[in-house]
Design brief:
Elements lengths: L5 H4 L4 H28 L13 H30 L1 H24 L11
Helix pairs in contact: 2-3, 2-4, 3-4
Keywords: Membrane, Transmembrane, Transmembrane helix
GO molecular function, one term: glutathione transferase activity
Membrane topology: Multi-pass membrane protein
Length: about 120
């Protein structure tokens, strides 16, 4: 049962964890926006999920979809770890966000090339 003391039981630096979660929501929104812009620019109509003839759109969609596959687990582990280790979980969460953005950027820019090399 939740009591008035529940929020007082959280670590003092738990706000960093919340800020990291908010930053991750902006990351997911940005990736969704990239898919929407690619859909409009490349004239891929709804409800087409993947284009049979447009690899650039498919790469945008895959980068977003791959991020969404692990996003619930990311948030769950971020908050659970944040209860005991708020600073460490926030730093690792930020690293994860930067890694997802780098991964997506590699997918966008290397759409016509092999994906065997990392963009960094």
């Amino acid at each position: 049962m939740w009591t008035n003391n529940t929020l007082q039981d959280l670590p003092r630096n738990f706000g960093y964890v919340i800020l990291t979660a908010v930053a991750s929501a902006f990351m997911v929104g940005y990736l969704a926006e990239r898919v929407a812009f690619a859909r409009k620019a490349l004239k891929v109509k709804y409800p087409t999920f993947y284009s049979p003839d447009n690899q650039l759109f498919n790469c945008s969609q895959l980068a977003h979809g791959n991020t969404l596959e692990t996003y619930p687990q990311f948030l769950m582990f971020l908050f659970i770890a944040g209860i005991g280790f708020p600073e460490a979980s926030s730093v690792l969460g930020a690293i994860c966000i930067v890694s997802h953005m780098s991964y997506a950027h590699g997918y966008y820019t290397e759409a016509k090339q092999s994906h065997t090399q990392l963009p960094y």
